[in-house]
Amino acid sequence: MTTLAIEGLEGRHGLLRAFQDISLEIAAGEKIALVGANGAGKTTLLRTLAGVHPTTRGRILLDGVDVTRLPGHRRAALGLTLVPEGRKLFTSMTVEENLRVALAAGRDRVWNFETVLEALPQLKPKLAAMAGTLSGGQQQAVAIGRALMTNPRVLLLDEVSLGLSPLAVQGVYDSLKRLFASGTTIVLVEQDLQRATSVADRIVCMLEGRIVAVGRAGEMSRAEILDHYFGHQARSGTHG
Ligand code: ATP
Question: For the whole model, what pTM was predicted?
Answer without folding.
Answer: 0.89
